[in-house]
Each structure stands twice: as C-alpha cells, then as structure tokens.
Amino acid sequence: MWLSDSSAPQWVALHKSTSAWFLICGLLLTTCFAGCSAKEGTGTISGKVTLNGKSITSGSVGLISNETGQGASGEINASGEFEFTVSLPAGTYVVTVAPPPPPGPTSGDTTTKTPDPVGFPKKYRSSETSDLKKEVKEGSNKFNIDLTE
C-alpha cells in the first residue's frame, strides 16, 4: 500500500510531517541538553602554593564563599601545585590552606598529641581567620597563593 500510486501523496505528506517532527524533537533535545550541561558563570581552579616564596609540598587548598557557604578544595602535590576537581560559581572566596592530616597512632595510644606541622601558619587554616581572598571568574582561574608567617 505504501508504494501504490494512489497512496503516494499520503506517503509524501506522512514523510514530510515525520521529518518535521524529528527536526522539532531534535532541536528541543539539543536545547535541553545544552542548557542542562552548561556551567554558565563557573570557573575552574588551579595554582601553586608557597610559603615565603618556597613551595609547600603537601596539604590542601580550600575556597569558601562567605555569601553562599559553597566551597571546594584541592590537594597540593609535591611541586606545590593544586587543581580542583569541581568548578565553582563566579564570586569572591576566602582561601584556606591546611596541612596534611597527621599520621594515626602507631602503638594504639590515642592520648599522644601530634606536633603541629611546620610551615603552615595557623591563620590560613580556617575561613574565619584567613585574610586571603580570591575572585573566581568565569573560565580558567590560576591562583598563586603566597603564605607569609
């Protein structure tokens, strides 16, 4: 029936309406996926941490927004560099830098106090005491963070 001469105009009309339907659905899906996956107004974060000009070789860097409470952190590698695995919305963030966690007790004695790590000024460990601020902009952000004692 689809190929008979008498049904040709119906087939052509059906073909045109089906093509239009697929085109409309395709455009709607493309628009939806583009809108859902776009991270408009966010920035990626990377950089290097130094203390008095010398690289810090372990620990973590955090950025926390006082406005929204949103934040993220990244580990500092042996070269003093860090990279966040998530993007952050554009805005102003307080920078925190923390030492790596102390090793656990080896003898099962939990009363022994671990010494304070050398090279991490305490004021940078909390968003309440850190005076460092960075402005995250849309796109790629590379921050050089120089701590001073």
What order do the helices and strands follow? Answer: HEEEEEEEEE
CATH topology description of the largest domain: Immunoglobulin-like
Count of individual domains: 2
Q: What is the overall number of helices?
A: 1
pLDDT < 50 runs, ≥5 residues: 11-23, 25-38
Query: What is the CATH superfamily classification of the largest domain?
Result: Immunoglobulins
**Roughly what percent helix?**
10-25%
Q: What do the pLDDT scores average to?
A: 77
Termini, distance in Å? 87 Å
Which architecture name of the largest domain does CATH use? Sandwich
- Rounded Rg: 28 Å
Overall shape: it is globular
* Main CATH class of the largest domain: Mainly Beta
Please give the number of β-strands. 9
Structural class comes to alpha+beta
Strand content: 25-35%
* Main pleated sheet: 5 strands, mixed
Give structural notes.
The chain has one helix at 8-37; strands at residues 42-51, 54-55, 60-64, 71-75, 81-83, 88-89, 91-98, 133-136, 139-147. Strand 3 and strand 4 form a beta hairpin. The protein is of the alpha+beta class. The chain has two domains: 5-37; 42-101 and 119-147, Immunoglobulin-like (Sandwich), CATH 2.60.40. The longest helix is centred in the N-terminal third of the chain and has 30 residues, at 8-37. Mean pLDDT is 77; it is low at 11-23 and 25-38. Strands 1, 2, 5, 6 and 9 form a five-stranded mixed β-sheet that branches. A four-stranded antiparallel β-sheet has the order 4-3-7-8, with no helix packed on it. It is globular, with a radius of gyration of 28 Å.
